[in-house]
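Problem: given the chain below (79 residues), write out its structure.
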Amino acid sequence: MCTPASAKVLKENIIELSQNGKILHLIVDAPKNIKMHIWSNEPEYYYDERNDGTLRVGFTFTLGAKERTLIKVRLMPQT
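Solution.
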């Protein structure tokens, strides 16, 4: 997900996004070990369009061949 918010990994399955005093948690529920990531949005190649002031947040995990799983991703506003 691309976002202009500030981000930090809180737990193994939670990233906290904050902007203008508001907080949103990106929570991933999966039966496998997942790794939460915060990536730069700097263009990799000269022909890529710039997207200044943003970053990308997401997650990765590994499944075996022909393996299936259910993943639930929630965006939860914090009060």
